[in-house]
Amino acid sequence: MLRRLSLHIPVLVCTRMVLASGVMVSCVDPQAVDVANLPCPCASGWICNTASNLCQRNPASGDDAGALADASTNADGSTTDGSAADTGTADAAAVSTFWFEGEAASGIDTPFQTQNDLGASSGMFVGAPAGTMPATDNNPMGAHASFTFNAPTAATYRVWGRVLAPVFTEDSFWVRMDGGTWTLWNDIQAASAWTWVRLFDSNNSQAVVTYNLTAGSHTLDFAYREPASLDKIAITTDPALTPTGLGN
Ligand SMILES: [Ca+2]
Ligand SMILES: [Ca+2]
Q1: Are 67 and 112 in the same domain?
Q2: How far apart are CA 234 and CA 191, in angstroms?
Q3: Measured in angstroms, how far is the CA atom of residue 172 from the centroid of ligand 1?
Q4: 79 is in which domain, residue-wise?
Q5: Which residues, listed in sequence order, are joined to residue 175 by a DSSP beta bridge?
Q6: How far is the CA of 216 from the centre of ligand 2 (A)?
């Protein structure tokens, strides 16, 4: 009875080096050695980068198959999802957080103004002084402070503000993303000290506001509703993030 044998027939890959003492030629079998960047086909535990036709180690995990961009280079040399050689498990979700000083907003205009406070991050904040005007219960015509950022991937973003809102008549803003519908952020939190508060919708049972954003440029606008002070903001994909102190 004949037994069929599976034989590995080496296909050697040779390199030629010119030395002072002469020419040196060294050859290896790419299916039998533990070296990256050898030509395909690849040994067990390695994957073929079809773009370069080179072998690279296939990790048991850390490669991607998910929707988020990799935090680091893939085994196949790509840095984003969807390449032909991706075979591992999904990456941990990449987290993006953008921090802005309120006073660094673009387009700051009346009734907002930048003001000084030793307790504020960078010693300054933006907002309307107490007694500016009554609450504007209608959607504002335009923004009074804007923050533009570049989202690296499509993701869901949340917003935190480091605010000072001492009384109920001085504790609200209008907020919108990319020129969309204004969100009423009212009854923020009566506190005599700067406090991090998550953006919520006062017209929707104080539900936390989330924005599903595409990769690319986006702009978050704040507008006057009542006198309240905005020291700093965080725009983040991390649902577990709760800023403390002065922020990052
Ligand atoms: Ca209020
Ligand atoms: Ca500040």
Answers
A1: no
A2: 19
A3: 5
A4: 8-91
A5: 183, 222
A6: 25
CA distance 199 to 10: 63
The Cα–Cα gap between 157 and 225 comes to 23
pLDDT digits (tens, 9 = 90+) for 48-82: 777 778 776 654 334 444 433 444 444 444 444 44
> Token pair 């007694």 is at which residue?
131
Ligand nearest to the CA of 168: 1
Return the ligand number nearest the Cα of 169: 1
DSSP string, 195-212: EEEE-EETTTTTEEPEEE
Closest residue by Cα to residue 222 from 195, 192, 183:
183
User: What are 108-121's pLDDT values in tens digits?
Assistant: 999 999 999 999 99
Yes or no: say if 88 and 109 are a contact pair by the CB < 8 Å rule. no
Ligand 1 centroid – CA 169 distance (Å): 4
Query: Could you tell me the pTM of the whole model?
Result: 0.65
For the chain, percent of residues with pLDDT exceeding 90: 53
Q: Residue 123 maps to which CATH number?
A: 2.60.120.260
- Distance (angstroms) between ligand 2 centre and the Cα of 125 equals 4
Give percent above pLDDT 70 in the chain: 68
